[in-house]
Amino acid sequence: MKTKILGKWLSLLLCLVIIACSVIGVLGAPVTAADTGKPWGEYLVRTFTDDSGRQIDQVIFPGKPPEVKAEVVQLPEVMTSGVTNALSNVPAFDWSYGCSATSAAMTAGYYDRIAWANVYTGPTNGGVCPLDNSVWPPGIGGSAGECPLSATHDGIDDRTSRGHVDDYWIAYGNTGPDPYIVNSWAEHSADCLGDFMGTNQSKYGNTDGGTTFYFNTDGSPLYDYTGAEPTYRDGCHGLRLFFESLGYSVQTNFSQYILGKAPSPLDPDIGFTFANFQQEIDAGRPVLIQVEGHTMLGIGYDAPTSSIYVHDTWDYSTHLMTWGGTYQGLQQYGVTVLRLNLNPGYTFSAPSAISLGSMAPGSTATATSSDGTLVGDNAAGYTVTGVDVKTDNKGYMVSGVNVLHNKLEIGPSASPTPPLTFGPADTARTFLSTSSAGIVALSLYVSQVVAYNDVVATGYTITITFTVIAK
Is the pLDDT assigned to residue 384 strictly greater than 70? Predict the structure, then answer.
C-alpha cells in the first residue's frame, strides 16, 4: 500500500517537474512576431482606433547591443546613383541610452556635418559632430557610450547641470518612475533627442532604453503623430521637435510599414519600398530602419542585391542587410523618415586634397578624396567648377624641387566618363552639375597619373580650388 502511494506521489511530482520545465521554457524564450502572428512580436504595445478612425499600431523599441555583433562591411569606392550609393559624413555611434535616440543622433550628426551647423555646438571636435562617440566616456547603467546629441548628462561635454541621463535613467530595462520624480527635483528643459523623443521617460510609458513609435496598420505613412499626447510621445514627432527647437524647418516626417508588412493593408501596393529608400539616399537623407524591437540608421543601398547599408548602434562600423529581411534575427517591418527644408542659399564643403605616395617614373597611381557636400535651395540647381592649384607655371603637381609634367584624369567618381583631364593650363573644369535643389556629395578620384620626369616622385598633393555657381 505504501509502495503504491509513494509511486503515485513520484508520478505526480514528475508531472509537475515536466510542466514547470515547459512553462520556464516558454517564458524564457523571446516572443517573436512568428509566435504572436502579429508584426513586431512582443514589442507591439497595442493596436487601437484613434479619434479620426485610423487603426494604429503602437510599438516600443528597447533594443540593446547583443553579445555577438553583426559582420562589418566596407562601403564601395565607386558610387553610382540608382545602382550603389551611400552617404558620407554619417556618424556611427555606439548605443547611447537607447537605440532609437542613438540612430536619431547619427542623423542629426550627419546634418550638422554637412550644412546644419547648429545641431551640435559643444566643445568637442571644434564644435563639429564627430564621426563616432568614442571621444566621450562609456555610459552608465548598461549604456555602451555617451553622446550629448542622444542623451545629455551632467559632467559630459562640459555640461554642469542635470540632463537627460540624470533625470530619466536608472538602468537598462528599468520600469519604475524616473529619478526626477523619485527625488522630487525640477525636470530639466528638453535639449537632446532623447528628451524630445520621449526615450527612457516613465511619464510616456517607456522603460529605460525604450522609445515608442506609431504606424498606420493599412500601410500608409503616419505623419507627425500627436494623437496619443500627453500620455505617450511618438518618437517620430519628437525627432521633428528637436530640429524645430534649433530653429530649423522640417518639410515632413512620418513612420510607415514597408511594403508587404502592414497587418491590414487597404491596397497591396501601399507601403514604403526599396525604391523609396533609394530615393531618400539619392536625395542625401538617411532613414531610420525599424526592425523587431530595434532602430538602426540606413545610410546607403546596393540595388543588385536589394541590400541596404546600416549603422546599427552596436559599434562604429557599417553593416549590410537585405531590404525587408532580418538583421541579426530581427525582422524589418518599418521605417521612419525625416526631411528637412533646405536653408536659404547654399552651403558647400569641398572634397579634401588628394595625396599620392612615392611613384617611379612612368608609373600610375590612384587615390580618392574624402567627400565634400553641396546643399542648396536653388530650384534650377548648381554648377561646381574647379581649377588645380599650381606652384609655378610649368605644371600643377610638385614633389620637392621636381616639377612633374603629368597627365591627370580626375572626376567626381571612379573612371569618370568622360574623365576631366588636367594639363599645365589653369583652366576651370566642371566637376558637378545639378538640375534641382537638394543635397549632393562630391568626391574626387584620381584615375591615372603618368609621370614623365626621370626621378622618383616622393609624394605630392593635388588640390583643387572650387567655385559654386547657382544656375
Answer: yes
Instruction: State the average pLDDT for the chain.
Output: 84
Q: Is residue 11 part of a domain?
A: no
- Whether residue 10 lies inside any domain: the answer is no
Q: pTM to 2 decimals?
A: 0.84
Summarised one tens digit per residue, pLDDT across range 242-281 is 999 999 999 999 999 999 999 999 898 999 999 999 999 9
- State residue 39 phi and psi, 5-degree precision: -60, 150
Distance CA 315, CA 317 (A): 6
Rounded CA-CA distance 96/234 in Å is 19
Report the C-alpha gap between 236 and 250 in whole angstroms: 12
pLDDT tens-digit map of 182-229: 999 999 999 999 999 999 999 999 999 999 999 999 999 999 999 999
CA distances from 290 to 50, 237, 301, 374 (A): 22, 15, 16, 29
Say yes or no: 298 and 365 in one domain: no
pLDDT recorded at residue 453:
47
363 and 291 housed in the same domain: no
Per-residue pLDDT of 279-331, as tens digits, reads 999 999 999 999 999 999 999 999 999 999 999 999 999 999 999 999 999 99
Rounded Cα gap, residues 173 and 156, in angstroms: 23
> Is 355 found in the same domain as 332?
no
Going 132 to 134 to 135 to 139, the CA torsion angle's sign is positive
Q: Based on the domain organization, do 355 and 324 belong to the same domain?
A: no
Q: Let me know if residue 1 belongs to a domain.
A: no
Buried residues in 127-151 as b, exposed as e (16+ CB within 10 A):
eebbbbbeebeebeebbbbbbbbbb
Domain boundary among 292, 314, 340: 340
Query: Euclidean distance between the first and final Cα of the chain, in Å?
Result: 102
Domain that holds residue 419: 346-470
Residue 294 shares a structural domain with residue 325:
yes
* CATH code of residue 401: 2.60.40
